Amino acid sequence: MLCTYRPRRGKEAAFLRLLARHWPALRRAGLAAPVRPTLHRSVDRKGRTVFVETFSWADGGSAEAAHRSRDVMAVWGPMEDLATEMEFLDLEPVRRGARGAAKAVPRARR
User: Which residues constitute the domain of residue 14?
Assistant: First the structure.
């Protein structure tokens, strides 16, 4: 997953404290892979702080199951109050052929 978060101005520190609980909550619920997430900070062209988090789900049903986890929802619910925008992208690998052409990997083959 690639997640982008734009916290409200003045709420960056509170958002980061909450985000520190995100992956541990997913792991306790058995929903995230054991590889720790990556977290990056940037500033967009409008001067807004953007946090970018990447992590892997444990399996294909984890994203849906997360909505039924009280522990996860205890993190996700307050995120909405602290952020102006959040976007969640389920990434798929892209393979490059011998001539450099990109080809998406079908989900069934992953």
Answer: 2-109
